[in-house]
Design brief:
6-stranded antiparallel β-sheet, Jelly Rolls, mainly beta
């Protein structure tokens, strides 16, 4: 079994298309993808040479394939003997030659029986490599009784077609000879089986063509021909053990006739996804008990090629297999009659090649006019395209006695863009009356499953491209980004033509989606969180792209690449690939978060004159925002201060100090990474000032931390309790004011001017000194009072010290008395007075 299957690559015939694949945007807006070639003679051609294969003049194809491609090559020819002798056994044969290699499976033959034309058809499925290829139709004449064979373009002519508009192809073309005798039940034709698998629903073209040649029958008792007996050969496809009636073909042949014939079917039907076993069956009712043979190796091995093939068709393939009812109105004779429904199709975008094919097995029409073996009436079929008949698409059949009552033809036409129609017509000639014609037409109408009309359009590939107003789109962390409305698709030449395209959108992280449902004209081919594959008309697609939305990953920020690729849907159906992508950078900005200060657990207590180490103090940065580099590498600036003490960091490694040294400082400013800062804060040492304790005033660690990138700041305060050691007892005070006496001021030089500074630490307290001779005293009362003079004068003034407090203030109070011989107090002695203030208010 010669079985071929696989994805079919595109047929590209222009260098511009190759440039389009490389550059993403073509230098020319539209390029014709050659998926079909055809050749036909324009004048009558004749063969006189005997036993030599020669090319049919004008029937050759030169094809350039950009990729490895599977082609269905087909030819049909209406060949006539010259001159029209009465009897003869001559044969004319045809074959396809690809790149100089003749193909036996493509061969077909016609033998001479009567002076009338014969229809010859052959097929071949070939997978060809990329590059230039030649396809030639050759013919050969056998025998001397017929002087020549001719092909007349005006009488049907000859067409050689190479077509590759199929995404999946399976075929078998065995060269083993077949023979069968009387076979009353359906049986498989040896070697004519295909097993196929469909991943999705497909429209399948089912095709077979089997040439046959019955031997001449004789009576059992003698060697004379056996007249009056008619053999009936039938074939049909069986799919998954079910016979498909639409594929049935048959031929009836009198036992006295032994002429080459062929059984064919070519139908297009939808099939769902699944596995299928396709078997060609045959049966033979032969009262003459003669054998029927299929002999591919007859003559020189080029005589009777056969094929069984299945092709996946584009979803919009026009096809007709139904004939309408016939209106019983007596026509004039002779007259052409419509057979089957009119097939409408549309050529889009630009003028292109269209292959029109029909197959009408006349022998299956249940009418006595077709069952009379002796008649020599001629039956003709022709195609009307846009109501105009084409002689090159005419076929002729000479009754059943010819043994080949199969009207078929194919013609390739170059049609302009727009709507078109195809209609098959048929005519029975040679002296029939109107009632006979109506009877025959009724038979045609009831044989709807025997007619096949199909259209194949060489695809015009457009060059759509992505339009982006700005290659950068800005978004915010944890917020969906709606793409700008200027993002869409365009085609510089065919913007007004709403042709189908396939669009792929992918992001390297996050998710891309549509906020609106797809309209009916668009279809999702595949969808994941990070990609969308859509198909539909380009104008409709552009309108839908306004709802494209990107959703970044949770807490993620940074640059994301949205890649967009668009391809003409026709080319994508042949080869699912895209040109270079157009990229949009989506910049997701981080939402800044202020660093937080985590304070130690418990409380910090230290004795006056001792040292304490604070553990557990650390900075908490942005621990959720991530980028391609991981968590955010934050740099923070830290300010630490205490009012009456010194601080020492655990480490200054990798830190930048802007105030203090990091060891024994009341205020330290430094910056660094959060990890290095936390190392420095892991063991923070505090030493209170000499003779300072919390009886004097409350001590606290003041802390501020700032993100150097965002300038976001957090602050915190941590109390430090410094317990007193051998301090004087607390003075209990219930009045709102009290005069304090008992100060002694002494200095070695009684004439030297000394300086005194008094300060109440609470905001509700004040002190006052009475004016004293020899002493200069500042304004009173106040939170701080200064005085200067000799030791004697200052002692007198200090003994007039009065403390005042607000009626609403009670609790602890500290008054500091500082003495110095320097007006700047660069060196001084401090004495503290601690009060316990009673509550004087009543409730």
């Amino acid at each position: 079994m010669d079985e071929r299957r696989g994805w079919i690559g595109p047929l590209l015939a222009l260098l511009g298309w190759l440039m389009y694949l490389c550059n993403g945007v073509s230098a020319v807006p539209d390029v014709l993808m050659h998926s079909m070639w055809s050749a036909s003679p324009h004048t009558m051609v004749t063969i006189y040479t005997v036993d030599d294969w020669v090319a049919v003049p004008g029937v050759n194809i030169d094809a350039l394939l950009a990729t490895s491609t599977t082609l269905l090559i087909k030819y049909t020819a209406i060949v006539s003997p010259l001159p029209a002798v009465q009897y003869g056994v001559d044969v004319v044969s045809f074959r396809i030659v690809v790149d100089g290699y003749p193909l036996p499976s493509s061969a077909a033959s016609a033998s001479y029986a009567r002076p009338a034309p014969s229809t010859v058809a052959g097929y071949f499925v070939a997978t060809l490599a990329a590059g230039n290829h030649s396809i030639v139709l050759e013919w050969r004449k056998e025998g001397e009784q017929v002087a020549a064979w001719s092909i007349d373009p005006a009488g049907g002519g000859c067409s050689l077609i190479a077509a590759a508009q199929r995404s999946l192809a399976w075929s078998t073309q065995p060269l083993v000879s077949l023979v069968t005798g009387d076979l009353p039940q359906w049986a498989p034709v040896p070697g004519m089986t295909l097993n196929i698998s469909l991943a999705k629903s497909e429209i399948l073209r089912l095709l077979y063509h089997v040439p046959l040649w019955p031997e001449r029958s004789t009576c059992p008792e003698c060697t004379c021909p056996t007249p009056g007996l008619i053999d009936f050969m039938e074939m049909v496809m069986c799919i998954n053990d079910a016979i498909l009636p639409a594929t049935q073909s048959s031929v009836a042949m009198p036992s006295s006739i032994a002429q080459a014939t062929a059984l064919s079917a070519d139908v297009t039907l939808p099939y769902p996804a699944g596995n299928y076993s396709i078997v060609l069956l045959w049966r033979l009712r032969s009262p003459s008990r003669r054998f029927w043979r299929s002999l591919p190796d007859l003559y020189d091995g080029f005589a009777m090629g056969r094929i069984l093939a299945v092709f996946a068709q584009p979803p919009d393939t026009p096809v007709s297999t139904v004939a309408p009812e016939v209106v019983p109105v007596a026509p004039q004779v002779p007259q052409w009659f419509d057979v089957g429904a009119t097939v409408a199709f549309n050529v889009t975008s630009a003028a292109t090649t269209v292959l029109l094919t029909y197959l009408l097995p006349v022998s299956r029409l249940a009418n006595p006019y077709f069952d009379v073996p002796a008649t020599s009436d001629t039956k003709s079929a022709r195609l009307l395209v846009d109501s105009a008949p084409y002689q090159s698409a005419t076929s002729r059949v000479l009754a059943t006695s010819r043994g080949n009552p199969l009207a078929q033809s194919a013609v390739a036409l170059y049609l302009p863009p727009g709507p078109h129609t195809m209609q098959l017509q048929w005519k029975h000639q040679d002296g029939m009356n109107a009632d006979d014609i109506l009877t025959i037409m009724g038979s045609l109408a009831s044989a709807y499953d025997t007619l096949s009309l199909s259209v194949e359009i060489a695809s015009w590939v457009n060059a759509p491209y992505v339009v982006v107003a700005s290659p950068i789109v800005v978004g915010v962390q944890n917020t969906p980004v709606v793409m700008p409305s200027s993002f869409g698709l365009a085609d510089s030449a065919n913007l007004s033509f709403n042709y189908p395209v396939v669009l792929r959108m992918t992001v390297d992280r996050g998710a891309v989606s549509l906020t609106q449902p797809l309209p009916p004209t668009l279809k999702s081919l595949a969808a994941t969180a990070q990609s969308l594959l859509l198909s539909g008309p380009i104008v409709d697609m552009t309108a839908t792209l306004a709802s494209v939305t990107y959703v970044p990953p949770l807490n993620w920020f940074g640059a994301v690449t949205l890649s967009l690729q668009v391809q003409d849907a026709t080319l994508y159906n042949v080869e699912p690939s895209f040109p270079a992508s157009v990229n949009i950078s989506i910049e997701i900005a981080r939402v800044p978060v202020a660093p937080m200060i985590a304070m130690p657990l418990g409380s910090t207590v230290v004795a006056e004159g001792a040292t304490v180490v604070l553990h557990g103090l650390h900075i908490v940065g942005d621990v959720v925002s991530t980028s391609v580099n991981g968590l955010v590498p934050q740099i923070v600036a830290v300010a630490l201060s205490v009012s009456d003490g010194l601080l020492t960091l655990a480490s200054t490694a990798n830190l930048t100090l802007t105030m203090g040294t990091g060891a024994g400082d009341p205020m330290i400013h430094f910056s660094g990474s959060i990890s290095d800062v936390n190392v420095a804060l892991a063991a923070l040492t505090y030493v209170p000032d000499y003779d300072f304790n919390s009886r004097q005033h409350v001590e606290s660690l003041e802390m501020a931390v700032t993100d150097t990138e965002t300038n976001l700041t957090s602050t915190a305060s941590w109390p430090i309790v410094v317990t007193d050691v051998n301090d004087p007892a607390t003075i209990a005070l219930s009045q709102l004011q009290a005069q304090l006496q008992g100060f002694l001021v002494s200095y070695s030089d009684t004439a030297t001017t000394l300086y005194v500074r008094l300060r109440a630490f609470s905001a509700k307290g004040a002190v006052q000194l009475t004016s004293t001779p020899g002493a200069a005293i500042s304004s009173v009362p106040a939170a701080m009072v200064t005085a200067s003079g000799t030791a004697t004068a200052l002692q007198t003034a200090l003994n007039t010290l009065t403390y005042f407090r607000s009626p609403t203030y009670f609790g602890s109070e500290v008054v500091a008395v500082e003495a110095s011989a320097d007006a700047t107090f660069s060196a001084s002695q401090v004495t503290f007075l601690q009060f316990s203030l009673s509550n004087t208010t009543t409730t």
